[in-house]
C-alpha cells in the first residue's frame, strides 16, 4: 500500500502517522521527493483501514500496490535512484561506463586494460575473479588473488572495481570491492542475495538467462529487504532460439524496468551477443533506449584471453565505441 502525503505536511504529523502504522506491525519505506512524500507500507496491509487513512487531513491519496515487489517498486519511490560509487553516480540521468576483461588474468593484463579503458572514459573497472564456467575444466578465475590484482589496478587508475561473487562463503573477500556483481547464474540464489544485501555495498544484479523481469525484480527485492537499497539491474540477454548470437538482448527490458522500478538499469551487450563485432551496435542501441550505463568486456589480447575472448573488444575498439556512445547520449538528451 502507498500513502501519498499532502504537500507541506509537518515532520511531526508525518512521524505520528508512521509510528501509528509501525505499531500495526508494518515496515514503512519513506520516500521524500521534491514535491511529495510517499510512504510505502510493507507487510500485512490487511490490518490497515484504507478509508480511515485516506480520510486523514495530511493524506492526499492511498493506493494498493498489487505487484509482489515493494522496495524496488517505482510507486514506493517515484524518483530515480542514483547509486553512488565513490564519485561515480549511476542512474537518474547519470550514465555509467563499466569496462574490463571477462577475467582477471595477470597484474600486467588488468592494469593495462584498466589504464586503457579509463583513457577512453570508463568510470568503473570490471574483471571476474570467481568465474562461473559451464565446464569444470575451464579457467575458473584467480579467486582471492584476482580481487587483490583488481585492487592494484584500482590503486593505479582510481577506477572503482566491479567483480562477481558466486558463493556467500566468499563474501568476506569482497569487503573492499566497490560493486559486487551477482551474475546471471546466481540471480535466484536467494541465500547469496540475502547475504550480499547485508554487506551494504552496491550490488550489480544481472538478469538470469531464463528469468522474467518480475523474477529479476523479486531478486532485487531480496537484496533490498536485507537493508541494502543500492541495487543496479543489468539486462545481459536471455536464452531464446537465437542461433548466431550467444543470447537475445531484450532491450525492451530497459523501458519496462524504468517504468516498474526506480533502480538504475544497465546493459551488457558482450554477454548478450557473444560476438565482438555485434557489441558496438547493441551498445549504441542500449544507450539510445535510455539505459543508465553499459558493462562491456575489453581485453588487450582477445586471441589469448582465458575467457570470452570472442566477445571482447580491443582497447582501440572500445575507444571508438565510447566516442559514439557519448554522441548518442548527446543526441537523445
Ligand atoms: C560476467 O559478467 O562475467 C558474467 C559471467 O556474466 P553473466 O552472469 O551475465 O553471464
Ligand atoms: Mn564474460
What this model shows, in words?
- The protein has 333 residues and is an alpha/beta fold.
- The longest helix has 18 residues.
- Bound molecules: phosphoenolpyruvate and manganese (II) ion.
- The site of manganese (II) ion (MN) has 5 residues, from loops.
- The site of manganese (II) ion has 5 residues, from loops.
Which key features would you list for this structure?
alpha/beta, 10 helices, Alpha-Beta Plaits, TIM Barrel, binds manganese (II) ion, 333 residues, elongated, 14 strands, binds phosphoenolpyruvate, four-stranded antiparallel beta sheet
Fraction of residues in H or I helices: 25-40%
Distance between the termini: 34 Å
Q: Give the structural class.
A: alpha/beta
Number of domains: 2
Give a short account of the largest sheet: 8 strands, parallel
CATH fold description of the largest domain: TIM Barrel
* Nearest-integer average pLDDT: 96
Give the H and E element order. Answer: EHEEHEEEEHEHEEHEHEHEHHEH
Estimate the global geometry from the Cα principal axes.
Answer: elongated
Which spans of ≥5 residues are poorly predicted at pLDDT below 50?
Answer: none
Radius of gyration: 21 Å
Strand arrangement in the largest pleated sheet: 13-12-11-10-9-8-7-14
CATH level-4 homologous superfamily of the largest domain: Aldolase class I
Total strand count, please?
14
**What percent of residues are in strands?**
15-25%
CATH architecture of the largest domain: Alpha-Beta Barrel
**The top level CATH class name of the largest domain:** Alpha Beta
How many DSSP helices? Answer: 10
> Cofactors and ligands present?
phosphoenolpyruvate, manganese (II) ion
